[in-house]
Design brief:
With about 160 residues, this protein is mainly α. Helix content is about 85%, strand content about 0%. It has 2 domains: about 5-55, no CATH class; about 60-160. The protein has 5 helices and no strands. Bound molecules: zinc ion. The site of zinc ion has 6 residues, from helix 1 and helix 3.
């Protein structure tokens, strides 16, 4: 070991961890503390410092406690509101998807009849189907999402005012 043994011993003592009242010491450190009075004093001082810090009572200002409790309750209410909104959005998305599947399946024979009556190719028919059947739902979803985001931002700013 090229390091100074006293410095190494003090580093081990300092890094022993304040969470353990009686840290497990390596045999080398035990032997060194038995032989070296200055490192033993350092270890005792470190132990006394930790115990005195543990006995120190820290009291917060009552207004600080009230303000912190108020902020925590406010944040909890905001998180609850966000969860409820998210649940509503997922419920709406699930219902819309289910409704789209059911109505598409129900109206599909009518669309096939229309395709045969108009006599267009499958590619043109599929593009037209997507444009006129699914396109409006996607556009409405984007508009509702943008409006919801706008309302959330506006309501969020009015809560803080
Ligand atoms: Zn020493």
């Amino acid at each position: 070991m090229t390091q100074d043994p006293h410095q190494h011993a003090r580093e081990l003592i300092a890094c022993a961890g304040a969470e353990k009242p009686q840290p497990v010491q390596p045999d080398w450190l035990k032997n060194h503390l038995a032989d070296c009075a200055s490192c033993r004093d350092y270890a005792d001082a470190a132990r006394q410092l930790v115990s005195s810090l543990r006995s120190l009572a820290i009291a917060a200002d009552p207004s600080l406690v009230r303000n912190t409790q108020l902020q925590v309750r406010l944040r909890a209410a905001q998180l609850q509101q966000q969860r409820e909104r998210l649940l509503l959005v997922w419920s709406c998305c699930s219902l819309i998807t289910l409704f789209a599947i059911v109505t598409s399946a129900a109206l599909w024979p009518g669309f096939q009849w229309l395709r045969d009556w108009i006599q267009v190719s499958n590619l043109v028919w599929e593009i037209g189907y997507v444009t006129f059947w699914i396109g409006p739902a996607i556009a409405a979803s984007i508009l509702l999402f943008a409006r919801g985001t706008h309302l959330a931002v506006r309501n969020g700013s009015s809560h803080q005012a």
